TrEMBL record:
Designated name of the protein: Protein kinase domain-containing protein
Highest taxon of the lineage: Bacteria
Length: 150
């Protein structure tokens, strides 16, 4: 990852701004990937968490992290199409409510394995679609991150 090139592209307006949260900003790199830029220590912690989950997970429920800077300030992830309503995700998993979604074995497994907050997985902004398959795109907000930074 060439951080200087990414910064240059963003400051020149070559990368489309996708959105931001309290801790990170997200830009489309235009090559099938996005960059998540930490705004503060909590953002760095979220980038670090996503990096480690992506590295060790084999569930295919998460968008893959491709690269990360040494200090975790920058994280490169697969770009996903936007989900406009959480019911799109429910339909894919053939459930009718968040309770049914949270009762799915694969959702329970990743929640327990990585200390993910289930309420975060019920937000449409936490999901995207890659190659017709829903994936979690925002998964850095774990119990540990919440307790330490919020």
């Amino acid at each position: 990852m060439d951080i200087n090139q990414i910064i240059f592209s963003i400051t020149r307006g070559y990368c489309r701004y996708i959105g931001s949260g309290s801790c990170r900003e997200v830009f489309d790199l235009g090559n099938g990937y996005v960059v998540k830029i930490a705004k503060n220590a909590a953002g760095i912690a979220q980038n670090k968490t996503e990096y480690y989950i992506s590295r060790y997970d084999d569930s295919n429920l998460f968008a893959k992290v491709i690269d990360v800077s040494k200090n975790f300030e920058f994280l490169i992830m697969e770009r996903a199409d936007k989900v406009y309503n959480i019911t799109e995700i429910w339909r894919y998993f053939d459930v009718k409510s968040k309770k049914e979604m949270f009762d799915l074995k694969q959702i329970k497994n990743i929640s327990q394995s990585y200390n993910l907050l289930l309420c975060d997985l019920n937000r449409q902004s936490s999901w995207g679609v890659i190659n017709g398959r829903p994936v979690i795109i925002d998964y850095g907000f774990t119990r540990e991150v919440k307790e330490k930074y919020y």
